[in-house]
Amino acid sequence: MAHRSFHPRFLVLISLLIVLSITISCGGTAAEPIVVEKEVIREVIKEVPVEKVVIKEIIKEVIVEKEVIVEKEVIKEVFLSKPPTAEASNTGGMEGFPVPGKDGVPADAGKLTVAMDSWGVSDINPWTISSVMFLQDMFNGTVMRQAPNGELMAYWAVSYELDEKGITYHLNPNAKFQDGTPADAQAMKENFDAIAGYSDIAQYGYDKPAYHRGRAIQCCESFEVISPTELRVHTKGPQPVINAVIGGHGYHAFWLGNPTRIKQGLDAYLKDPAGYGPFKLVKWEPGTRAVMERWEDFWADYAWLHKPQYKDLEVLAVADHASRFALLASQQVDMVYNIPWPIAKDLVRSENLGKRGVNPGQGDDIWTQTYQANGMLGLTFALPHRKRNTVAKWPEGSEGPGGNPIVPYTFKPEWENDPTMDSRVREALNLAIDKRAISKGPHFGFSHPTGSIYSRGTFGSRLEQINNISPYDPERAKALLAEAGYADGFEIKGHFGQFAGRPGIPEAVDAIASYWQDIGVKVTWQEHDPSDFVKGFRRGKLSWTQVAVPTFGRQEHGARRIISSYHVTANYQHPHTDETTAIKHILLQTIDEAEQKRLMAELEDKVLALKEIFPLYGMSLVMGYTDRVLSHPTVEESPHLKHIELVTLRD
Q: Are 294 and 282 in contact (CB under 8 A)?
């Protein structure tokens, strides 16, 4: 009998039929999981599709059934941790610092004297304050505070709960003011009502609003006392960045005071603010000197914050850099805020010799620590932005998303042919700048070149974009100028302001002038008073044409930078489009952090694509100390001087 072979595909078909017949004979009618594994996962689940969300104070174990072979089972109920809260037990990054009363460190010390270039404005009434005033941390305060590890921690409020309709603060029941009155929810409400203009402060003799009133109105519908230790802030829709606005983060903080004293009128308040901070203000010389003494009954007793070690504090405003450093070198002051970089480069850095903020113990007369990248510097071109937003587009009465008024710009006919209206010219001017060389040279390594509109390490910033620093390419710059019809170059006018706590700006503009000269562009820089310079970026102004070098204070939540600058009703106007305005509006409607980050990245990409703003640097600031200072725990990245009350002295 002849042997007959079968094709391999026929054999496979027979095998499949046999398997199918066995399956049917065993009663199988549908695909079922063969193995079910159970896992206990200890984690915080922030966002998953749910039918029900159960909010708990603690992290729960979530049982997840995984089906091998088939897809995972969909979880219908999860435990969701609350949004970040401050816990009183958290050490806030104080580990490794000298502790008063232990290991030979004195429990009490005498006087700390600090010299700084500026503490901001000299307004100390938080209800009518005209801008930032950093000494408020000492005798008044914020709802919560940023600890040395950078986290938002317990202070007047020990925790909070954020949802799509508002935020609830839970206050420390021991909080009180220096005159003995309770720092309760009613007192906090009176502060917010006054700042927002929801109460009449004219009856107390005050005739001007606080500079941040608009921000309070924009986010907060009303303030409700739930109990003596609970304040509910009803918001105008979801407000994902509300803690960055009113809670204690960032450059433009909402400082609060003692309503009882403030309502007695300015003269009485200036005599004794009686706030709830760790020091009493005993002598106030606006713009020159502040003298304080430790409040012995300071109520805060957290692991990271409590009554200061030293008894007296004197803060001097000394604008001149050389004079300020001379006070430190001669030991007339214990600490100096903002040492010029050419001097700081040769001083001992605590970061390099042990723990940042701790005296290295090398026997040196002066040691330092640095606030890294505390202020942002950029390059902006205003004319294209002005042209996009004239009265032809925004007639009188126009409003942006949310109902805020739009203030249009004028655009002169002669500006149409300005070189900076051409994106190739703007790109050329950016490519002509060697940012890395400026950082290493005139900035002595204290500036950090950046490619992002957001500050390093803040919410929403992308490390890859921060490190995406534009190249130095003068040949490409010349080619772009030639393409645009400016092969022989042109003349341009630029604007800048020198701000306290923002070193390196004059050196940067001088270097930029030199680099632009190399490609045939001559710039004439005009320096402006800092306050006037800021006003020139206000909505409806944009005074600084053709080019300007604005500076930005650090905001811990990058959306605060968007709110300030990158939409049509922003109050610190920088290049934006209708698209970025729409993205900003959507961003402020979600508390989904992943979605916030996605939107912030999208907006940043669109802003940078305009080639009308080019990020330059994060500018660091150096603080110096005499050998008498044992430590100063403070955040690594900050827009202003913080945590003076945490300084520890030898005597």
A: no
The predicted pLDDT at position 638 comes to 83
Radius of gyration for the alpha carbons in the chain, expressed in angstroms and rounded? 29
Domain ranges of the chain: 32-81, 109-323, 374-620
Class for domain 374-620, per CATH? alpha beta
Dump pLDDT digits (tens) for 235-247. 998 988 888 889 8
Q: Work out the pLDDT band at 23, boundaries 50, 70, 90.
A: very low
Q: Could you give the CA distance from residue 11 to residue 9 in angstroms, rounded to a whole number?
A: 5
Give the residue among 182, 180, 190, 155 at the shortest CA–CA distance from 169: 155
Beta pairing partners, 448: 618
- CATH number of the 109-323 domain: 3.40.190.10
Pick the closest to residue 610 from 377, 376, 384 (CA basis). 384
Q: How many other C-beta atoms lie within 10 A of the C-beta of residue 90?
A: 17
Give the pLDDT confidence of 459-515 residue by residue, as tens digits: 999 999 999 999 999 999 999 999 999 999 999 999 999 887 788 999 999 999 999
Contacts for 272 with CB less than 8 Å, ≥ 6 apart = 178, 179, 261, 280, 281
Concatenated DSSP letters for 41-109? Answer: EE--------SEEEEESS--EEEEEEEESSPPPPPSEEEEEPSP---TT--TT-TTS--TTSTT--S-E
Q: Which two tokens stand for residue 553?
A: 């204070």
Question: Which of 62-76, 315-329, 453-467 has the weakest average pLDDT?
Answer: 62-76
Q: How far apart are CA 114 and CA 138, in angstroms?
A: 13
